[in-house]
């Protein structure tokens, strides 16, 4: 067993949050999510996502480099098998005959060819969508197209679906056009979120594919963890992460109140890892990674793997002694002590 007090001392202060984090260990028998898709995500998924480092700057060639990087670095063999394309992978308009989603111009071979190429390398394929009428970057959303869009993405061969929470109510757009719902379980917004996510989840089951369903919980998704267990495998429990130690700590803390709901088939998601993106120290990145492990959160890397000349942090993300915590029966939680 690793020495946690080396990477994460028993109590560590963080000035940006005015608090102290204290690490405690306890024995846990993991629960099983009350989901008809509970055979998916029996352990927290591991892989890579495009958003943190690349945003909309994705293409067929870049994803080919990423998949090669995962294989050549040994990360695939360590368990990082999901290659998830975030927003901007699709065309701005649906197919004008079928109404189906189609690949954007940066993916000339199409999404099925990309999925086939990833699967041939022993990797898994993830795509992004949104429960609203548009995605956060204004591409076509799932709203009222859940069955058709999931069926289309299943034909592409996806194994993971990130389902965001932008543009959810057309008449009530705020600010930059994203209507962030409050996380109030009994509010009309929350019930609407549940209904839309439930339709997507039902379409996933109907597809016959084992697809991890990752939904937006707070602040924009309007879904609490108790409800989310029945319609998803992962639920974002905070806002978008940034590449800073304070942001990593904040997103980690956001998930801790819902740890009792986590178990095989359902996990709390504090967002993709920022490890290796260049704005934190090596110790902060290792600590950031360790927090995600001890919290039993998904390990979705976010640095630009495979880009020539770009500094990476592969060793931070492949520490087997830390990763073992993710799979064993000893779990950890943090107590926050505010100064």
Strand order, largest beta sheet: 11-9-8-7-6-5-4-12
Tell me the fraction of residues in β-strands, as a range.
15-25%
CATH superfamily: Aldolase class I
Largest sheet: 8 strands, parallel
Q: In terms of per-residue confidence, which ranges show pLDDT below 50 for 5 or more consecutive residues? A: 1-30, 170-187, 329-339
Count every beta strand, where a strand is a DSSP E run of 2 or more residues.
Answer: 13
Could you estimate the helical fraction of the residues in percent? 25-40%
User: Radius of gyration from the CA trace?
Assistant: 19 Å
User: Structurally, how many domains make up the residues?
Assistant: 1
In CATH's first tier, which class applies?
A: Alpha Beta
Global morphology: globular
Helix and strand element order:
HEEEEHHEHEHEHEHEHEEHEHHE
Instruction: Using the coordinates shown, work out and report the CATH topology.
Output: TIM Barrel
Mean pLDDT: 79
CATH architecture classification: Alpha-Beta Barrel
Number of helices: 11
- Amino-to-carboxy terminus distance: 31 Å
Structural class category:
alpha/beta
If you had to describe this structure to a student in words, what would you say it looks like?
- By secondary structure, the chain is of the alpha/beta class.
- The protein has helices at 4-7, 51-54, 60-73, 111-120, 146-156, 188-207, 225-228, 245-256, 282-294, 314-317, 320-327, and strands at 11-14, 19-27, 31-32, 46-49, 82-84, 124-130, 160-164, 212-216, 234-236, 263-264, 267-269, 299-301, 330-338.
- The strands form three sheets. An eight-stranded parallel β-sheet has the order 11-9-8-7-6-5-4-12. Strands 1-2-13 form a three-stranded antiparallel β-sheet, covered by helices on one side.
- Strand 5, helix 4 and strand 6 form a beta-alpha-beta unit.
- Helix 5 crosses helix 6 and helix 8 packs parallel to helix 9 (282-294).
- The chain is globular, with a radius of gyration of 19 Å.
- Residues 1-30, 170-187 and 329-339 have low confidence and may be disordered.
């Amino acid at each position: 067993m690793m020495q946690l007090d080396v990477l994460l001392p028993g109590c560590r202060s963080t000035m940006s949050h005015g608090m102290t984090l204290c690490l405690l260990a306890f024995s846990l028998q993991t629960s099983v999510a009350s989901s008809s898709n509970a055979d998916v995500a029996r352990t927290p998924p591991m892989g890579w996502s495009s958003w943190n480092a690349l945003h909309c700057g994705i293409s067929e060639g870049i994803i080919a480099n990423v998949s090669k990087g995962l294989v050549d670095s040994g990360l695939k063999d360590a368990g990082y098998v999901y290659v998830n394309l975030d927003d901007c992978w699709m065309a701005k308009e649906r197919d004008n005959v079928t109404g189906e989603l189609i690949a954007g111009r940066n993916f000339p071979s199409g999404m099925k060819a990309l999925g086939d190429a990833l699967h041939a390398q022993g990797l898994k394929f993830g795509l992004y969508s949104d429960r609203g009428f548009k995605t956060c970057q204004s591409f076509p959303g799932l709203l009222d197209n859940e069955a058709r869009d999931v069926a289309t993405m299943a034909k592409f061969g996806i194994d993971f679906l990130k389902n965001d929470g932008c543009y959810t109510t057309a008449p009530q757009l705020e600010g930059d056009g994203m209507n962030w719902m409050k996380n109030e379980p009994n509010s009309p917004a929350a019930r609407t979120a549940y209904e839309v996510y439930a339709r997507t989840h039902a379409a996933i089951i109907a597809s016959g594919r084992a697809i991890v369903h990752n939904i937006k919980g707070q602040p924009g998704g309007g879904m609490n963890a108790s409800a989310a267990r029945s319609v998803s495998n992962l639920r974002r429990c905070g806002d978008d992460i940034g590449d800073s130690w304070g942001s990593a700590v904040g997103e980690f803390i956001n998930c801790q109140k819902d740890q009792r709901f986590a178990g095989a088939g359902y996990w709390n998601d504090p967002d993709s890892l920022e490890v290796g993106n260049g704005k934190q120290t090596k110790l902060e990145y290792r600590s950031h990674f360790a927090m995600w492990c001890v919290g039993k959160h998904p390990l979705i890397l976010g640095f630009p793997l495979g880009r020539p000349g770009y500094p990476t942090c592969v060793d931070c993300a492949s520490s087997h002694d830390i990763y073992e915590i993710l799979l064993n029966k000893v779990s950890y939680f943090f107590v926050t002590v505010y100064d």
